[in-house]
């Protein structure tokens, strides 16, 4: 579906739509905004981002993602005003084992805790299980990110294990928690079965 962007006359391509958010492809025109989020201190901490990037590197990254058949990077935007509030990605899609990794970031604290991330996750999980025919989708979350852990559990992810001292950030080591969801778990929770 294409709709008009409120700040211009350029149509906005919406790949996946929910009631309050939609997911749209990222374009080279989004480089500046995506670049700036990589220097937001809280986003860097929650995602464990340690490196610095140039705008040129980010533009190449975005262009590369458009050519990469093993991943899908989308921006999360609000239905009400088309404002981009974060991004979400299915990565490392493995067609033989039907598995992938998912990651999400909601950039501003004011947009967190409102259910936007939950809705975006469910949209992307539906795409992964229902369109890409994945069997397993996993994620890693750092032990200090309690809000994200609660969100993932609320959506239906199950804890599988802990990678001890997996991240060194701000003078200390942190554990990474591995969580996953299987296709039948998603369907049992979110897909209404057609009765015969």
Give an account of the 3D structure.
This protein has 196 residues and is α+β, with helices and mostly antiparallel strands. It contains six helices and ten strands. The strands form two sheets. The chain has an eight-stranded mixed β-sheet with strand order 3-4-5-6-7-8-10-9, sandwiched between helices. The protein has a two-stranded antiparallel ribbon with strand order 1-2. The radius of gyration is 17 Å and the shape is globular.
Summed up:
With 196 residues, this protein is of the alpha+beta class.
Element layout with pairings:
Elements: E1 2-4, E2 11-13, E3 16-17, E4 21-25, H1 31-37, H2 41-47, H3 55-67, E5 72-78, E6 84-94, E7 99-106, H4 116-130, E8 136-142, H5 146-155, E9 158-169, E10 172-182, H6 183-190
Strand tally, please? 10
In which order are the strands of the major sheet placed? 3-4-5-6-7-8-10-9
What does the average pLDDT come to?
Answer: 91
Low-confidence stretches: 1-7
Helix content: 25-40%
Shape: globular
% residues in beta strands: 35-45%
Could you name the key traits of this structure?
two-stranded antiparallel sheet, 10 strands, alpha+beta, disordered N terminus, single chain, about 200 residues, globular, about 35% strand
